[in-house]
Amino acid sequence: MEKLQIGHQVLYKNNQLIAFNKAATVPVQTQATDTLSLLQMGEKYCQHPLHLIHRLDQPASGVILMAKNKKALAHLNRQFQERSVVKSYLAVVKNAPPEPKGQLRHFLARSSANKTKAVDASYKGAKEAILDYELIGKSEYYHLLSIQLLTGRHHQIRAQLAAIDCPIKGDVKYGFRRSNKDRSIHLHAWKLEFTHPTTGERETVVAPLPEDPVWNAFSTTL
Q1: What is the DSSP letter of 16?
Q2: Could you read off the pLDDT of 96-140 as tens digits, one per residue?
Q3: What would the pLDDT profile of 60-90 be if each residue is shown by its tens digit?
Q4: Which residue ranges make up each domain of the chain?
């Protein structure tokens, strides 16, 4: 996603907010490398500062919403804290989950090497993580899960799916056998539903799937 191309990644914009379809492997915020972050490219595109409202793992793709001013930022931060924002994801996994539809509840804790693991509730620093999932598609080799996050923990989807032996395609950090060639993982932030900070209307932003053979195989499912 080069600077000149980021206009094609804009999913939604108005005076308060702007949303981009982040490409896999692009960092959301600035890191200690020469790689341009989505935030930097977004600010160049808008020609003024932007404020991050939420995050998305670098190897994942999908919707990232940013605020154009501090008032909109505060409003959206409050919605995330109150869990009124609906966050829907898609994940491609090799193994089918134990049930076609259900809710996962784990306690998660961050470990070394920027990783999260499922632990006992009494573990120091453990936080409850909850998500709903549904098996919505199958191909010859993979399964497609629709996921709705009910909490927002570090690497939550990746860690919880790994805990039920359903690691995400390409996610070697969480137990998938092989990495994707571009170091991406098949996790996509698909939809984001929130309340507009000034109109009060509910808005839904949808991010089209990345272009690759595996995602393309599931495109007719959605």
Answers
A1: S
A2: 999 999 999 999 999 878 899 999 999 999 999 999 999 999 999
A3: 999 999 999 999 999 999 999 999 999 999 9
A4: 3-221
pTM: 0.94
Q: Are 159 and 109 in contact (CB under 8 A)?
A: no
3-221 CATH: 3.30.2350.10
Give one word for 199, left, alpha or beta, with left for phi > 0 and alpha for psi -120 to 50.
alpha
pLDDT band at 32 (very low <50, low <70, confident <90, very high): low
Place of tokens 């009124």: 84
Burial of 98 (0-12, 13-18, 19+ CB in 10 A): exposed
Residues that are catalytic: 57
Phi, psi of 46 (to 5 degrees): -85, -20
HEC letters along 35-93:
CCCHHHHHHHHHCCCCEECCCCCCCCEEEEEEECCHHHHHHHHHHHHCCCCEEEEEEEE
